[in-house]
Every structure is written in C-alpha cells, then in structure tokens.
Amino acid sequence: MAHIQLPEGVAGIRSLVMFRPDTGKPLYERENSPLSQAERELIAAYVSFRNSCVFCSMSHAAAARFLYKDEKQTVDLALKDYQSAPIPDKLKALLSIAGKVQTDARTVSAEDVQFAKSFDATDRDIHDTVLIAAAFCMFNRYVDGLATLTPTDPSAYEQMGERMGTLGYVLPNKQ
C-alpha cells in the first residue's frame, strides 16, 4: 500500500504523475536524443535494475524488449552482464558511464568519456546517458520511497513495455 493517497490501481510513477503532474515533466516532455529509444530504455532498465527498483526495471526492460523486437533477449543479457552482451561497444561504454552515475556520479572520469568517444559516442550521447541515469536514480527512489503499486504479474509489464514502445511516455489520464 502506498504511503500517500494515490489513484487506486495505477502502478509506479504513473500514479505519482497523476498525483503531481509537474513532477512528470522531465520524463514525459523530453526532446529527441541521438540514442535510439531502445538504447534509452535499456539504460533506464539497467540503472533501475542496479537500484533494485522492481517497477522501473521491469517496465523499462519490457519496453526495451519490445523495441529490440526479435533480439529481445539482448536486454536480459545486458542486464546480466552488459560487457558480454551482443550490444555495440559504444553502448557498453555508455552503460559503464551509467553504472558509475548510479553508484557515485563523481567517479565518471575523463577516461570513461574518452573511451566512449573512441566508439563514436558524441557529447550528446554522453550527456543523455548521464541524464537518463541520474533521472532514473531519482525516479527509482521516488517510486520506491512512496511505495507505489508494483505489479507482480509479468504480463502487466509486457503491456507497459508495448505502450511505451509504441506511444512513448504519455501522461496518464486523470481518473
């Protein structure tokens, strides 16, 4: 049960955005990124997984799986061990940066950035990776700190993943 009065039956951050719509603006009103939607969702799932945020890791992993289509197993392989997953070296370098942001952002070094750039990561790729990682650290704590509804049925996340993969992050309707 949530720690505050939230819309009944609405899971995770969606219930919090319905409670306070202004808090969802960074998530729901974002500009395009040079990173693909699948890459952005994988970064969000990776950071959320490392933060043990079940709702965010499950929903964003589901979105990434949906977007990776026939290669959806890539998501689980990357969450388990991204260094040996069948993803581009650029994405591996960006996930390394995201992991450092998740644990202690001050440990992201010039060498980490240069390593990512050696695989053609642009300043915008690096910026967006850090922004996604930092934002999801906050979103994870927001969702878990208020004990939002976290579905236990994996099929609920498949539906969320498909919605995010097709419609993007749409603001929930007020009930």
Model regions low in confidence, pLDDT < 50 over at least 5 residues = none
Shape: globular
Q: How many DSSP H or I helices?
A: 9
Outline the biggest β-sheet: none
The overall pLDDT average reads 92
User: Which structural class best describes the helix and strand composition?
Assistant: mainly alpha
What portion of the residues fall into strands of 2 or more residues? under 5%
What does this structure look like?
α3 runs antiparallel to α4, α4 packs across α5 and α6 packs antiparallel against α7. The model has no long low-confidence stretch (mean pLDDT 92). With 175 residues, the protein is mainly α. It has nine helices and no strands. 63% of the residues lie in helices and 0% in strands.
What is this structure, in a nutshell?
The chain is 63% helix and 0% strand.
List the helices and strands and how they pair.
Layout: H1 12-19, H2 25-28, H3 37-50, H4 54-68, H5 73-81, H6 89-104, H7 110-117, H8 123-145, H9 154-167
Helix pairs in contact: 3-4, 3-6, 3-8, 4-5, 4-9, 6-7, 6-8
